[in-house]
What we know:
Structural class: alpha/beta
Strand content: 5-15%
Shape: globular
Number of strands: 14
Amino acid sequence: MSQELRRQALTVIQPGFEGTTPPGWLRRQLARGLGGVCLFARNTPDPGTTARLTAALRAENPRALIAADEEGGAVTRLESAHGSRWPGNGALGRAGDPELTRAVAAEMGAFAAAAGIGLVYAPTADVTSDPRNPVIGIRSFGVSAPDVAAHTAAFVAGMQSAGVAACAKHFPGHGDTTVDSHHDLPVLRVDAHTLRHRELLPFRAALEAGVRTVMAGHLLIPCLDPHRPASLSRPVLTGLLREQLGFQGAVVTDALEMDAVAGGEPLPALAVRALAAGADLLCLGARRTDEETVLAVRDALVTAVQVGELPASRLADAAARVLAVALPRPAAALAATPGAADGEAPYGAVLGALAARRALELTGEVPPSAAAPVVVTFDPPPSVAVGRRTPWGVAALVAARVPGTEQVTLTPDTCDDAGLAPALAHPGRPLVLVVRDAARHPWITAAVEKVLARRPDAGVVEMGLPGAVRPGAWHLATYGPSLASARAAVALLYGDGGSGSSGGNGSNGSADEGCGGTAGGSTPSELPPA
């Protein structure tokens, strides 16, 4: 094998790995030219540990591209221990100010840069066209393509102003689907006119803003290619993205281990197909964490070149594009040393808190009460993109402010009459029902209906995509489940921390607790990029 071919092949591969220090195999392959890594929650327990890890990775390869899924809102890897201090796209879109979105993204970028991240897999540029979508939803800036385009461009500009490359995903648009590509192959059934004027509008805006990377989605678009998913389709990646839209940056695959494309085909073969179609950076996924897999992909790429299946120029071009992704890191990021004492870097999230407050949508009036509330959280299984490590909700924050607060968490397995009993056992106390994407979960909507039939005075806090759930006496939509949104909601409901509900716009919550009470399960699972 040619040494140069092997080096180029390693450059386009991006694996994950276990632990908070680089394993020996990873150090070895980085020194030989491995292009970078994708970090997951298991690698990033706090900013200080993350900064030391990224420094160790770059010690082996100064040009290594270190990436993380850091969207804010529901999807965070760097702040998975307590939830993101920045609201996600849904809240930013609801706030309706692209300039604020740009500033929030710059604030997030400063935090990521200080931790040593060079590429974030954000923003999600998909338009929420189907509320049943199980994987996009609140991760989108909204339902209007022009609005999504404006916020996408603003996010890209803000993030990259901090020296962190952004990534517009999931090209050419995952919003009008009802299947999660982590589990099966979604089909985007739109005509060419709709695709051009809706799905592609935010991606065009991202390209005009200078986005460094675009992530190809694992989804089938029959009007473009009825036979291959976008991530493996030359008509989509080369014909549309490169030639028609003029994108000159790096095309990243969504994780090649995902069921939408895996389908029994060996990962090395998928890697060759993706590169031949026009992808540049091959994200292997969270479970592919061993040297054997990396070398198998490397060798498959080299062999494909040697036998004429993959042009040598295509591999060389992909490697060059990967090496060109990184932006110069600002001096502030180079000098910063994030502390791990409280899980937060020196970079604050003032603008994140502001955006979370602006996104709140309160319907009805929250009555004042001196009694401690009962907070019932209906905890649905999270999507694979969101993961099971990140807590969400308002219960613990309310309990920190109001002594005597009772916290109840219900799941599909526990949401029966016995589970609901505590919610109905204290008719004299305020009752707060906390839901997430309730309209997508019949068990939640049925349970909320049952409770509200007995307690029509109860209020509902929706921390996902608002839908057709009964509002109760009052309804508060946060447009996302981040820690920032939880703090904003509690500040609105409970003011400056006194007991009872004030209904006033209190200051951003200062409690150090995480979102509270519902980590979504006790067994963590690692995730491919969302």
